[in-house]
Write a structure and sequence with these properties.
Blueprint (H helix, E strand, L loop, with lengths): L2 E5 L4 H10 L3 E5 L10 H10 L6 E5 L4 H10 L4 E4 L5 H9 L4 E7 L3 H9 L4 E5 L21 E2 L8 H8 L3 E4 L4 E2 L2 E2 L1 H12 L1
Parallel strand pairs: 1-2, 1-8, 2-3, 3-4, 4-5, 5-6, 6-7, 7-8
Antiparallel strand pairs: 9-10
Length: 198
């Protein structure tokens, strides 16, 4: 069964929704200036309210590696998701600090981007449109891959089943597709998860 990550949780209410619906992963966004940004302290508080069986993913863009390591080692997050210019040396430094899972996001604009994504030494590549606009990338660029990966970008309760049938991803990653007026919407979260799991 395809795993589900719901990203951009920032309110206690969002955590309550997650605890009831039980996605496979949730995500905290640590990029200042973004609507879903949370501080390290806010994330630690939200993590303390989250069901302990749900891994928390930290979403970073060019964050100093020592900050990411600190969040992993403190248990605030269990997985690091990298969205910036983090290179193989950065990933290696995270690995040396502990056996931490790494997701590396790639903006897909060409088939070469997909090749780079699957060549990077991460546990899971994440394929996205890279714009944070809630739009899908050009799905026709994709070719079947052996390595498990996360699929993101423009997913919603309406299109996620088609995306799974097209890509066979390890996991689907949603944020704006389960929101109303910029906030997580319980009914949309439930509809998304029902669409994946039925």
């Amino acid at each position: 069964m395809t795993k589900i990550k719901i990203c951009g949780l920032r309110r206690e209410q969002d955590i309550r929704y997650a605890n009831e619906l039980m996605p496979d992963y949730i995500g905290f966004v640590f990029l200042k200036g973004k609507m879903r940004y949370v501080t390290f302290e806010e994330a630690a508080h939200l993590r303390s309210l989250l069901d302990p069986v749900i891994p928390a993913v930290g979403v970073f863009v060019n964050e100093p590696v020592e900050n990411v390591i600190r969040l992993l080692q403190s248990g605030t997050i269990q997985i690091a998701q990298l969205h910036g210019q983090e290179d193989e040396a950065y990933a290696e430094e995270l690995r040396r600090a502990g056996d931490h899972c790494i997701i590396r996001a790639f903006a897909v604009r060409s088939s070469e981007d997909i090749h780079r994504a699957f060549a990077f030494p991460a546990d899971y590549p994440l394929l996205d449109n890279g714009k944070g606009t809630g739009e899908t990338f050009d799905w026709s660029l994709f070719q079947e891959q052996e390595k498990p990966f996360f699929l993101a970008g423009g997913l919603s309760p309406e299109n996620v089943k088609e995306a799974i049938e097209c890509f066979h991803p390890y996991a689907v990653d949603v944020s704006s597709g389960v929101e109303t007026d910029g906030f997580k919407d319980y009914e949309k979260m439930k509809a998304f998860m029902d669409a994946v799991r039925r």
